Amino acid sequence: MNRIYIPTSSAEDWRKFLAEPEKQWRTGYSAKELAEAWQNANGFPDEVQQVFSASAHPALSELEMLMGIPEYQVNVPGGARPSQNDLFVLAHAKDNQLVSIMVEGKVAEPFGETMETWLANASAGKQERLRFLCNTLGLPNMPPPNLRYQLFHRAASSLIEARRFNAGYAILLIHSFSAEHKWFEDYQNFLGLFGISGKVNALVELPGAWSIQLFTAWVHSPARIQ
Hints:
Layout: H1 21-24, H2 30-39, H3 46-53, E1 64-74, E2 83-92, E3 98-106, H4 115-118, H5 124-137, H6 149-164, E4 169-176, H7 184-192, E5 202-209, E6 212-220
Parallel strand pairs: 3-4, 4-6
Antiparallel strand pairs: 1-2, 2-3, 5-6
Helix pairs in contact: 5-6
């Protein structure tokens, strides 16, 4: 995978990095909302910054955004394709540690397939990937069938890149632009595997891996594009 990235000058520049630009770059869809929110912010969007500032974890209360890369691919063992994350952010924490943040944008789109659907007639590669994801997240190798596969590889991606950058923290950040908080229940079900309950606009800690502290947050922003 090529590791050369080019800068963006407007939200429109994000479009070319999408897997399916004609399908995904539409008003009311997360790709466009996310690009507008992050491209036009001076660092973190206001709602994201507020969640970090209110965190009970002192090191994460004053994060400095160092860089952001749209449509960031992370290689995960097994399967034919990498995990393509909406946005990867590398940040600097108050205690001088680096922070790996994987951002998943949401409006009305679901978190992809359920585990039951994704594992139907699973290949050896899929089985290998599931074992890796579950081992990375410290979870049983056979999650409940109603959980969403996307949340597993997005959370694992934050840890994988944290280890690659020698970061002390990893964060899975769901940036939702849905007034109804659509799919929040799926997020809650995923956190339930760790015995944790999340809240809108709150940062919570999950069990980490490789001596990396893992966190997650569901951040809501109002839709910018009508």
